[in-house]
Amino acid sequence: MKEEQLLEKRLIELSKIAYHRNIFTYTDFLNLNERNILHTLPKDKLYSRYVTFGGYDLAERQMVAFIPDALSLREENLNDIDFPYVIIKILPLQAKFSEQLTHRDYLGAILNLGIDRSKIGDILIKEKETIVFIHRSMSDFLCNELTRIKHTSVYATVSNCEELDFTPNFEEITGTVASVRLDSLLSLAFSSSRSKLSGLIEGAKVFVNGKLMTTNSYQVKEGDIISVRGMGKFKFNGSQYRTKKNREFVSINKYI
User: Any residues with CB less than 8 A from the CB of 255 and at least 6 apart, and which?
Assistant: First the structure.
């Protein structure tokens, strides 16, 4: 609770600075829980509007930009927001001798350099390279100090944000559910019983569009992104038709 209260105060203070000084203010990368704290703050506590972004669509860890009141009236300028992150590409020095490294391997190596978790955004493992979103203040340090991950020698370079071409891979899953309740769709997505997965909702591990959801019976809407901490996320494509047994035939995209 103390950490949550400190975060609330920090968010309110950044919003206040943006309003009174007429400048953009930014947070570090926030996880799903921290973003939920922002989204559930009473509107009268914030002095300015805000947007979140993590470098690409569907980013799980995102920064918040509090927008000066003067700019709030000019929506067309929102593309000019300069979120303080850069993209780092990490590649093996010798590809043929490199190990099959995991997300945990990359994150552990970066944290072992002494970089705080809040300075690190998403880590995307691609076929020939790995992309890390990191706070601008840490980019030179990471490029200079990250030379090995497990037994693999690597090098890191700053990449142009405009060069990022990342399309998340997903598996389309279809099936029938009694209704488009949250627990029913979780059961379809993760091939488990509703009773087992309801504990995830009650345990504050399920988020819908970045907002914590603690109600099993929440009716999911077409286009909603459901994230489950430690398990993954999926997009609800919608209900296609109702079967003769009065069940909903639905489609989801589960990100892999």
Answer: 58, 168, 169, 170, 232, 233, 234, 235
